[in-house]
């Protein structure tokens, strides 16, 4: 057993990424970068929302813990206001908190559901917070009011949501993908059955609002365009697999500059892709633990990812003595995240 343990430990950071310290005491559920500065927020199963300031000097990084707040139960999701002043967090206490981080203010509860809040987003064009819950609703909140501006019934439990105003995509249980045009948020714009045969794990809207990516527990990603005339561009691809071992795709993040995207999975790997050329740009080495969440910073020069147990094999496979939750920072080279120029083949 000793040699097995040693081998596993040697592989905790195979990509030689920078480790954020101190690391959370339990599994990390979400990572969110400020849209304006290199400030990273992590939520975790130890009921905490933590924040670090990241400074760069050439190719080296340094992190300093800035502040933290607590929920009464595990925290599952986070989001930033577009001006970078305020953090939102939600989770198993069925409420969302607004934390005026930059001003040093105290967090206040701004949203309530009847079940855990699993995902959220700030909508800059509307100055509203949208929260998705296992209570099968989507709620829109003006943070100055105690009641939601609108409650949207969903066909099933919300698993993931993504906003690129005016596009909102929601993935629910039973493989439903519901698309909303936020200029008319009270009506479903489109409801799609996922192109993936297994449970939806994550969704993210295209930067140009013309479609979305969806990832499933079965090591597969779907690329979906909304325009009926673009349906021939839709495709799915396999990833985060190792022979017969198939892992969940846990996170999808578009690069804010190049429009390429990263996938992260329960196999402990993260990869960079270009959907337009259907190419994998870079496959990174597998960490010894799953990657449950990830995030690019505002200019795409830092990719943060968590490495920790994601409970995909249940409590019986969780060993608190060996489990360590880590947050790593990877500085992508341009060749990893910039689409390669297409070579004309001469064929039409």
TrEMBL record:
One MF annotation (Gene Ontology) recorded for this entry: RNA binding
GO biological process, one term: transcription-dependent tethering of RNA polymerase II gene DNA at nuclear periphery
Keywords: Repeat, WD repeat
Region (Disordered): 1-22
Repeat (WD) residue spans along the chain: 21-62, 68-109, 110-151, 249-283
Biased composition (Low complexity): 1-15
InterPro entries: WD40/YVTN_repeat-like_dom_sf, WD40_PAC1, WD40_repeat_dom_sf, WD40_rpt
GO cellular component terms listed in the entry, alphabetical order: nuclear pore
PANTHER family on file: MRNA EXPORT FACTOR AND BUB3 (PTHR10971)
Protein name (Swiss-Prot/TrEMBL): Uncharacterized protein
